[in-house]
C-alpha cells in the first residue's frame, strides 16, 4: 500500500500547532517525509516544535519554506490565508502540492481563487475534524487523526494527482477521509456545530439580560447544563467561525427559525399529536445516531 | 424545631410513585406521620408500596382516603387532578390540608379554582424539583428531597396555617423551600427546562427530515451530543408538559425567536463586535452559574 503513496521529500508546515504539528508527526511515523520545515511567527513555539522532534528545521520566513517544499500544509487560522496565498502563488514549485486545515471551506476557496492563479490546480482544501483541549506544538501527537474524520473539498481545477496525494497522506494518518464540495462541507458544519453554538449562546444571553435573571439560573438543572455547555466556548473564536461561515450559517438559521415558527403555531393550536410527532422523530433519530456512533470505530 | 411542625395523623398519598412515595417516607423518617394511606389505580404498584413500607394501608378508592386524611398529597400526573379535585371538594375534612406535586402550576391552580370551592383555602400547590431515572413506589427513598428545590405557589385564598404546614413538611424532607406565584414558577421552568427541550427536539427533527440527513449526523460530534441530550427525552411526556405550560412556554418561544432574529440581523450585517458581545455575556453568565452551583450545597 505505502509504495503507492507519493513521498514528500520536504514538507513545510505553516502554523505548527496541534493540527499542523500532528500532521507532521503522522507523516514522519508513516515514513512518508524526509524533512519537515516548521514556519511560524513566534520563535518560542517553533523552538518547542524543534525540541520535540515535530519539525527538523524552523523559519519565520514563509517565502523561503514555500519555495523549497514539495508539500505545503497551511495550518494557520483561516484569517492568515489571504496573506499566505500570494506568497504561494509567487514562490511554490510547479510540482508541489498545497493543502490547508481550515474549519470553513467556502471562504478558503474564495481566497485561493483570488490569489493562487497558476497554482490553483496544486491546491486541495482540507478540514481534519480533531478539536482538542490543548494547543501548540507541544500538544501535537502522531495519532491525533487516528479514527477521526478528515474532509477534503477538491475544486474542479484541482489536479487529479494532487487530490490523490492529499487523500493518501490523510489516510496514512489513520483518518477516515471523505470528499465533498466546499458548500456541502460548510452546510454540514453550520448545521451540526455552528448553529447549536449560536442557539446555546442565544438562550443564556437572553436569560442573563433579564432583571430577574438570577432566579432563572437558580432553578436551572442538568438539562440546561448540557444544552448550554457549548455556551462556555470561546466568544472570539466563535465570532470568527460565524463570520467565516456566514452564508451557510445564515441559511441554517433561516431554516431553524422556520422550524420554530412551525412548532410555535402547533403549540398555539394545542396540536399535541403533531408536537409529539416532531419530538418522537427527533428522539428516534438521535438514538439511532448514538447507536451508530457506538457501533462505529470513529469517535 | 420539630415541635412546631404540625403533625399528620393520617397522610393520604394519591399516586404512590417516586415523588409521592418519597414524600411519605420522608414524613415517616421525620416522625411527623402516624399512618400513610396509599391510593392508586393499579394494585400491583400499591402492593409494592405496602411491601416496601412506603405506605401502611392501600386503597383504589380515592374518596374514602380523602375523607379520612389530615394531609392529602396529590402526586398523580397533572391530567388526573381535574378528576380528583371534585372528590376533594366533596369529601375532604374542613381541617385537612391538600397539596400537589405537579410540575406546572398555572393549570393546576386553574383546576383548583374551578373545582375546590369551599376547600380552596385548604390547598397549597407545590412542585418538588427532583426528577430521577427511576419511577414507581419501589424507587421511592426517604432522602430524595434532601438538598433539592421545592417550590410552593400559595394562592391569595390559601390559609396562612396551611401554607406554613406545607412549607414545614417540605423543609422537614431536607429540601430548600421557595415560595413564588404560579405565573413566575411556570415562566422559570418554561425558560430553563421546557424551552431548551423544544429547541433541542427542533434541531434534531429538522436534520432528520432532510433527504441527506445521515450525512449531517455523520459529522456531528460532542457539542451536538450534549446540546441534543434532552432530545432523547420521552416524546409523550414532553408533549404533555408543553401543553400543560402552553402559555408561559409560548411567551418564552416568542422571546427566543426575537433573540434569534436579532442575532441573524447581526450576522447578516457581519457585526462581529455585537455578536462577540452576546457570546461573551452568555459565557460569563454560564460560568458564573456553574461556579455558584459548585459552591452551593444544592445539586
UniProtKB/TrEMBL annotation, chains A, B:
Family matches, as PROSITE patterns: PDH_ADH
The keyword Oxidoreductase appears for this protein: yes
Gene3D superfamilies reported for this sequence: 6-phosphogluconate dehydrogenase C-terminal like domain, NAD(P)-binding Rossmann-like Domain
Pfam families in alphabetical order: PDH_C, PDH_N
Domain called Prephenate/arogenate dehydrogenase: residue spans: 9-297
Keywords carried by this UniProt record: Oxidoreductase
Entry protein name: Prephenate dehydrogenase/arogenate dehydrogenase family protein
Source organism of the structure: Leeia speluncae
Amino acid at each position: 500500500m505505502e509504495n503507492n503513496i507519493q513521498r514528500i521529500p520536504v514538507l513545510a508546515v505553516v502554523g505548527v500547532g496541534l493540527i499542523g504539528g500532528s500532521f507532521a508527526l503522522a507523516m514522519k511515523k508513516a515514513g512518508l517525509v524526509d524533512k519537515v520545515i516548521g514556519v511560524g511567527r513566534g520563535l518560542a513555539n517553533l523552538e518547542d516544535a524543534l525540541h520535540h522532534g515535530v519539525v527538523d528545521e524552523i523559519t519565520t520566513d514563509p517565502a523561503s519554506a514555500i519555495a523549497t517544499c514539495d508539500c505545503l500544509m497551511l495550518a494557520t487560522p483561516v484569517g492568515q490565508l489571504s496573506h499566505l496565498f500570494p506568497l504561494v502563488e509567487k514562490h511554490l514549485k510547479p510540482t508541489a502540492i498545497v493543502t490547508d486545515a481550515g474549519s470553513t471551506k467556502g471562504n478558503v476557496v474564495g481566497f485561493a481563487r483570488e490569489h493562487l492563479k497558476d497554482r490553483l490546480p496544486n491546491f486541495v482544501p482540507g478540514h481534519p475534524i480533531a478539536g482538542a483541549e490543548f494547543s501548540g506544538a507541544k500538544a501535537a501527537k502522531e495519532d491525533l487523526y487516528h479514527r477521526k474524520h478528515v474532509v477534503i473539498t477538491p475544486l474542479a481545477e484541482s489536479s487529479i494527482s494532487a487530490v490523490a496525494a492529499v487523500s493518501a497522506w490523510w489516510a496514512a494518518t489513520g483518518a477516515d477521509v471523505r470528499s465533498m464540495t466546499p458548500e456541502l462541507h460548510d452546510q454540514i458544519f453550520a448545521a451540526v456545530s455552528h448553529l447549536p453554538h449560536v442557539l446555546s449562546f442565544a438562550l443564556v444571553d437572553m436569560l442573563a439580560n433579564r432583571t430577574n435573571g438570577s432566579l432563572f439560573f437558580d432553578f436551572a438543572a442538568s438539562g440546561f447544563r448540557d444544552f448550554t455547555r457549548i455556551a462556555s466556548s470561546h466568544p472570539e473564536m466563535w465570532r470568527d467561525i460565524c463570520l467565516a461561515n456566514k452564508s451557510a450559517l445564515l441559511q441554517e438559521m433561516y431554516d431553524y427559525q422556520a422550524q420554530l415558527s412551525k412548532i410555535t403555531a402547533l403549540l398555539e393550536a394545542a396540536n399535541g399529536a403533531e408536537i409529539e410527532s416532531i419530538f418522537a422523530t427527533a428522539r428516534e433519530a438521535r438514538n439511532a445516531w448514538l447507536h451508530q456512533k457506538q457501533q462505529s470505530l470513529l469517535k
